[in-house]
Exodeoxyribonuclease III
Amino acid sequence: MKLATWNVNSLRVRLPQVLDWLKAHPVDVLCLQETKITDDRFPFMELAAAGYEAVTAGQKTYNGVAILSRHPLSDVVRNNPLYVDDQQRIIAATLSDIRVICAYVPNGQAPATEKYAYKLAWLSAFHDWVEQEKHQHPRLAILGDYNIAPENRDVHDPAAWEGHALVSPPERDAFSRLTALGLKDAYRLFEQPESGYSWWDYRQAAFRRDMGLRIDHILLSEALSKQCTGCTIDREPRSWAQPSDHAPVIAELKP
DNA sequence: ATGGCGGGTTGGACCCGA
């Protein structure tokens, strides 16, 4: 069983890459963020032809999430029932006995902005809901763009990033509060390459210079983390023409 | 220091991402 997450930054633009990637990496589940497409325009047919059913929480222009799966999905929940939010950032579904949450955490812009306050409030409510979900579904996986680099080793230049959104202590605390619920950062269950980043800015030739951050994560409940045999970031699509600025992250579970 | 790239929008300067 392979679970993956990818912020595609517009599914309309990236659909060919998603299909190519799925052909080479036929994962069981792929969580997408920043689809930037309404549900009535979602490419259900193209994905079905590739063997994937999809559930979506779409939105025009911004945000938008989806779960693609080779297996039937049930019990779909859109948005956080504990938090009123007109931005489509969460979708959850069950496949066989695994509960999957796909999340696109707000960016936060910069400390002391309204967007930063929204991010922290959003994360606090997300924590409370995840706590409930975990009680209901002990086999829980949360995949997505967390917009948080949990530690300095997840940042190419921690000094340059100090004081910025994505690395600030309150955001990292919010991430720790999630893991304190008994969720493991799948990537850190294993030995990893030194620069294990999942996002590189489009500007400054950041990818070529490997100026990245690791902000896309797969959190696994205890039961699932014990079955996890690997977690990798596939940076190859970031090197393609017209790429997303994020790379896919993949976790493998064995029975 | 600023903006740099890329996607989107009801049409082309501006918002947003991270």
Remarks:
- Residues 9-10, 12-13, 34, 36, 60-62, 107-109, 115, 145, 147, 164-166, 199, 201-204, 206, 213, 215, 242, 245 of chain A lie near DNA strand B (CB under 10 Å from a C1').
- The longest strand of chain A covers residues 98-104.
